UniProtKB/TrEMBL annotation:
Record-linked CDD domains: DRE_TIM_HMGL (cd07938)
UniProt-listed GO biological process terms: ketone body biosynthetic process; L-leucine catabolic process
Single GO MF annotation: metal ion binding
Region: Disordered, residue numbers: 317-346
Family: Belongs to the HMG-CoA lyase family.
NCBIfam families, per the entry: PRK05692.1
Protein name according to UniProt: Hydroxymethylglutaryl-CoA lyase
SUPFAM superfamilies: Aldolase
UniProt-listed PANTHER family: HYDROXYMETHYLGLUTARYL-COA LYASE (PTHR42738:SF7)
UniProt KW keywords: Lyase, Metal-binding
UniProt KW Magnesium keyword: no
InterPro entries: Aldolase_TIM (IPR013785), HMGL (IPR043594), PYR_CT (IPR000891)
């Protein structure tokens, strides 16, 4: 399968961890509700493709996210691969109780940098949401769980407009101060640009938060996701959120289109000589399969570019494998005429 020309750039991390969010953040915004068996297969395919962090589902109330109402069933069906982490999103202590009861080892909470989105997404203020998260994080840490915090609307809010950098840093630090291991900075509506990304990460550094505690989560609404990712990598970030096939968005912000596609990210990183451990061909196959399950084409440009080539290669390989077998069958039954199978001849 075609691969990018490798031309490393200075100042980039040698390896990037891809935090795969397709099964959660991707599927939660799809109109098609997939059965748990298909979701479990999706997660398994992602693990086989080499992804080592796969956000599996969410324990948000099914009234708000019906696409993920089968969280318990999915976790019961999933086959855990050693060395792969399967975090789940929990909004409150009830969600944490459910997660702990199922043996979850990694959780995430989901905050907002703006008051309007906090009210629309969590039905409470920023301060109120932090108060809700505090016992969740405390109990999770006491139980030995890894805890990630998402911070949405870090670059722009559809109701409030541009979000001040100082406001984002202040709220992000408060989430980390609760005890979270990592903070993922979300461009929920995709309005960020590389200069904005650089300025925000610099501001976190000046506030005492190093890039080793930060991840980035870009949506591609304005086609800036890869450029913004490269800016984050040059600033020292080495954890990037992405969604297989580019599926997803945000159900509470209609201007938020799909996530950065994992395939597009892997293509860029491969060309830059940055290791990910991901098998791009296997990942493209997974997204082609998922697109068929969802009943719509994959938004990923790399999937679109490589899917036809991959299908042709697989078909050719199948014909080559079938050729010798057909010849052997013919040699084993000399003189047999071509025609219907023996059962039909009778």
């Amino acid at each position: 399968m075609r691969a990018p020309f490798r031309a490393p750039m200075e100042g980039l991390p040698a390896r990037v961890t891809i935090y795969e969010v397709g099964p959660r953040d991707g599927l939660q915004n799809e109109k098609t509700v997939l059965p748990a068996t298909v979701k479990a297969e999706f997660v398994a395919r992602l693990a086989r493709a080499g992804l080592t962090t796969i956000e599996a589902t969410s324990f948000v109330h099914p009234k708000w996210v019906p696409q993920l109402a089968d969280a318990e069933e999915l976790l019961g069906r999933m086959e855990r691969v050693p060395g792969v982490r399967y975090p789940v999103l929990v909004p409150n202590e009830r969600g944490l109780d459910r997660a702990l009861g199922l043996g979850v080892t990694d959780i995430a909470i989901f905050g907002s940098a703006t008051e309007t989105f906090a009210q629309r997404n969590l039905n409470r203020s920023v301060d109120g949401s932090l108060a809700m998260f505090a016992p969740v994080v405390e109990r999770a840490c006491a139980a030995g769980l890894a805890v990630r915090a998402y911070l949405s609307m870090c670059f722009g809010d559809p109701w409030e407009g541009p979000v001040p950098i100082a406001q984002v840093v202040r709220t992000g630090k408060r989430l980390l101060d609760l005890g979270c291991d990592q903070l993922s900075l979300g461009d929920t509506i995709g309005v960020g640009t590389p200069g904005h990304v650089t300025a925000l990460l610099r501001a976190f550094g000046e506030a005492g938060v190093g890039t080793e505690r930060l991840a980035v989560h870009f949506h591609d609404t304005y086609g800036q996701a890869l450029a913004n990712t490269l800016a984050a990598l040059r600033a020292g970030v080495s954890v990037v959120d992405a969604s297989a096939g580019g599926i997803g968005g945000c159900p509470y912000a209609k201007s938020a289109t799909g996530n950065l596609a994992t395939e597009d990210l892997v293509w860029m990183l491969s060309g830059l000589g940055v290791r990910t451990g991901v098998d791009l061909a296997a990942l493209v196959e997974t997204s082609v399969w998922l697109a068929a399950e969802l009943g719509r084409p994959s938004p990923s440009r790399v999937v679109q570019a490589l899917a036809a080539e991959l299908a042709t290669t697989r078909a050719a390989a199948g014909q080559e494998a079938a050729g010798p077998a057909a010849e052997r069958a013919s040699e084993a039954a000399p003189g047999r005429s071509s025609g219907p199978p023996a059962a039909e001849q009778e």
